[in-house]
């Protein structure tokens, strides 16, 4: 099995540092009195603020002259996102109203540190993918929210049901422990959340509802939840292999391995889409593996349900390098954004990292919005089947982009290896990771 170079995959993953949240759609329009002097190759009429943005963006003179409007648009997007994020830190631009807690269809479940149910395992220092912590104005009282959580909770005392074992992670939101059900011997992960330190408790209610209503063999499933004093214990399936990020970072995956992972992920995505749910944050970090070959999609902190009244979304959510062009441009989108993000995840498997990881955020906006299908560094190594598979995932025109159902019938997936052999690849990745971390 081929391994990645010493720090090749590792150093390439140190690019874009944060996901992006925007409460309102972006309306890109030319700033008043701004023009471009092609003779001199400079913008005319830019304010000092915009001049500073342009300087920070590090666009080359050729890029500016080739497409000044695209450059200016990327600056506007970055500036708009930054201003909205700053405002969100003080006052959330999306407010969860009381009736929205009972109507999951109308509410996008957003993640905050301590506001979602993903497996908060300790992350190494080099993991750039943590999301910013947002503080949200509540429209429900704590008593109201606690009452809703109690309605959804098992009234038993979990301490009599589970044997709590090693701690898997710790954060501001609480701790995650591996545990064993004393009655069934099922190994689970329990997130113990201190409700006094949860900034977005309303969204926990909404996410629990989505998880309870949607179970699938390729999703990290909800098991139960318990209201214990000022804590909420959320019990989820446990996978002992961690996220797929280690796999794509520390070994060179073979096409039969890629095909197996792709098939399992697409089964999860197809199920979600059949339930009118968009995940909105597909990436290797959110695919968990088991040493027995299990592949499961996790982290529903950004998911949204489409309805007849709202068949498309405009909110900018997700992690930047995986965002579809229509999301970056704030064009109304549907579930095909998950297919684009999935295609970027396939590039992770091929190259060890998503495209544009070494670019600054200005250039990432520019590339996603204007370039179209990103380049694959190792494209020359791909079989015709894998090349066609990625092409169908990464069509800029949404109508031409394949659906999960269509991709499940693609010839590339016929190469899929037996899942039991994925555990061997995971073991090799762990060995390589430990070797690198020792140095």
Automatic annotation (TrEMBL):
Cite the GO molecular-function annotations of the record: ATP binding; metal ion binding; protein serine/threonine kinase activity
Specify the Protein kinase domain's residue ranges: 162-413
InterPro entries per the UniProt record, alphabetical: CRIB_dom (IPR000095), CRIB_dom_sf (IPR036936), Kinase-like_dom_sf (IPR011009), PAK3-like (IPR051931), Prot_kinase_dom (IPR000719), Protein_kinase_ATP_BS (IPR017441), Ser/Thr_kinase_AS (IPR008271)
* Enzyme class per UniProt: transferase
Q: Which Gene3D superfamilies match?
A: CRIB domain, Phosphorylase Kinase, domain 1, Transferase(Phosphotransferase) domain 1
- Which stretches does UniProt call biased (Basic and acidic residues)? 113-128
Instruction: Report keywords, A-Z.
Output: ATP-binding, Kinase, Magnesium, Metal-binding, Nucleotide-binding, Serine/threonine-protein kinase, Transferase
Task: Note the Pfam families from the entry.
Answer: PBD, Pkinase
SMART domains, A to Z:
S_TKc
Q: Which cofactor does it need?
A: Mg(2+)
Residues binding ATP: 191
Q: Where is this region: Disordered?
A: 109-129
Q: Which reaction does it catalyse?
A: L-seryl-[protein] + ATP = O-phospho-L-seryl-[protein] + ADP + H(+); L-threonyl-[protein] + ATP = O-phospho-L-threonyl-[protein] + ADP + H(+)
Q: Which domain of life is it from?
A: Eukaryota
Q: What is its EC number?
A: 2.7.11.1
Q: Which family does it belong to?
A: Belongs to the protein kinase superfamily. STE Ser/Thr protein kinase family. STE20 subfamily.
Name of the featured protein: non-specific serine/threonine protein kinase
**What does the organism's lineage look like at the top?**
Eukaryota, Metazoa, Spiralia, Lophotrochozoa, Mollusca
């Amino acid at each position: 099995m081929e391994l990645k170079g010493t720090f090749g995959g590792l150093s390439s993953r140190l690019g874009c540092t944060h996901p992006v949240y925007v409460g309102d759609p972006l309306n890109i329009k030319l700033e008043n009195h701004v023009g471009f002097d092609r003779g001199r190759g400079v913008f005319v009429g830019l304010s000092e603020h915009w001049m500073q943005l342009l300087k920070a963006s590090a666009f080359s003179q050729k890029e500016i002259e080739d497409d000044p409007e695209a450059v200016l648009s990327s600056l506007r997007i970055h500036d708009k996102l930054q201003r909205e994020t700053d405002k969100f830190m003080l006052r959330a631009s999306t407010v969860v109203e009381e009736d929205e807690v009972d109507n999951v269809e109308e509410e996008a479940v957003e993640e905050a540190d301590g506001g979602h149910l993903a497996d908060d395992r300790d992350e190494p220092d080099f993991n750039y993918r943590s999301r910013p912590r947002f503080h949200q104005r509540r429209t429900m009282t704590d008593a109201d929210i606690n009452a809703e959580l109690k309605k959804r909770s098992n009234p038993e005392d979990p301490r009599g049901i589970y044997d709590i074992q090693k701690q898997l992670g710790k954060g501001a939101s609480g701790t995650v422990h591996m545990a064993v059900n004393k009655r069934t011997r099922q190994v689970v992960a329990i997130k113990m959340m201190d409700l006094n330190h949860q900034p977005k408790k309303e969204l926990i209610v909404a996410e629990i509802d989505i998880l309870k209503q949607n179970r699938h063999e390729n999703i990290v499933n909800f098991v139960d939840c318990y209201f214990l004093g000022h804590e909420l214990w959320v019990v989820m399936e446990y996978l002992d292999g961690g996220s797929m990020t280690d796999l794509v970072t520390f070994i060179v995956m073979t096409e039969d391995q890629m095909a197996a992972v792709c098939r399992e992920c697409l089964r999860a995505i197809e199920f979600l889409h059949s339930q009118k749910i968009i995940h909105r944050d597909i990436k290797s970090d959110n695919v968990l593996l088991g040493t027995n070959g299990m592949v499961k999609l996790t982290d529903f902190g950004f998911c949204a349900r489409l309805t007849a009244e709202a068949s498309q979304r405009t909110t900018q959510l997700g992690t930047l390098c995986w965002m579809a062009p229509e999301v970056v441009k704030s064009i109304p989108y549907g579930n095909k954004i998950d297919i684009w993000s999935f295609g970027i995840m396939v590039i992770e498997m091929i190259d060890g990292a998503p495209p544009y990881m070494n670019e600054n955020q200005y250039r990432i906006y520019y590339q996603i919005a204007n370039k179209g299908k990103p380049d694959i560094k190792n494209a020359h190594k791909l079989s015709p089947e894998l090349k066609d598979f990625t092409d169908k995932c990464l069509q800029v025109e949404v109508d031409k982009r394949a659906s999960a159902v269509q991709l499940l019938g693609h010839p590339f997936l016929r190469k899929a290896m037996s899942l039991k052999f994925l555990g061997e690849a995971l073991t090799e990745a762990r060995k390589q990771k430990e070797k690198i971390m020792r140095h």
